[in-house]
Structure prediction request, 301 residues.
Amino acid sequence: MKKNLLLLSILIHTFAFSQNQGKKYPAGNGGSVFLPLGDISFADEVVDFKRGEPDAVSEACDSILSLGISDFAGVASNFTSLGCGGKLTLRFTDNALIDIPGPDLYVFEVGKYIETTQLYVSKNGKKWINVGSISGGISSVDIGDSVKSADVFHYVMLEDLKSDCKGSWPGADIDAVAAIGSGSQINLKSAVLFDFDTFELLPAAKIELDMVVEQIKKESPSKIIIEGHTDNAGIEPYNQTLSEKRAISVKNYLFSKLSAFKTNSSAIGYGSTLPVASNESKLGQDKNRRVSIILIPKIEK
Prediction:
């Protein structure tokens, strides 16, 4: 049963990816924005929300309203007001932000005016890069001048710059945030791939990875990035080394069957620095022990 559920999770990811490619979304200003990967392009999780002062009315204070696809319907709901000087930190979990030609990041801000908001991106939620701001009628940002072309980011932070602190909804009003430059991400639990404290692939792991191989063949990405992650048990230098070796093991298996991608791939270990759940519980630790495979699409220039 466990194996069937794990296989099903990859099938669902594959189906969702194929169904969501290439969609246009209302931009909130009468126009539209095209997202190459469709629904999975949107931010998935609130990491932190520091409300500004003055704050917004209560119904617009819920940070969860900034997640998922853009769904503003023209009424005072389904968006998050940052408040004057507020900060909102979001994470992408089924995709990752990358640099492509042209705009890379789009903020679905509602209301008549786009209030000045500074944008930052981060790989790990700790070290941040200022990538520019939105204001006036511009809601998109090209991160290319601020980052390296090969960089992959999992976090975005929005900071209201106090350009308008009046009314019931002071500060920027955020309906959704999406990565125009986006790579799909497949997450596999380490328990499926490895025995405890090892980096040799289990026989059952090859069944899971063979499905990933077929997905890679189907998408034909321009680059593949394999990330290894652990929980916070033990000392960090050991966790770092283990995560690297596990990422390399997955990479070696994938490219034993995908030789055409060998020269355009990388394996990275992050240790316990990028948790997706709390390490205070066994369930959270289990989620944090994982290998993520990010497929960077080919970009037409």
Summary: Residues 28 and 73 are 9 Å apart (CA to CA).
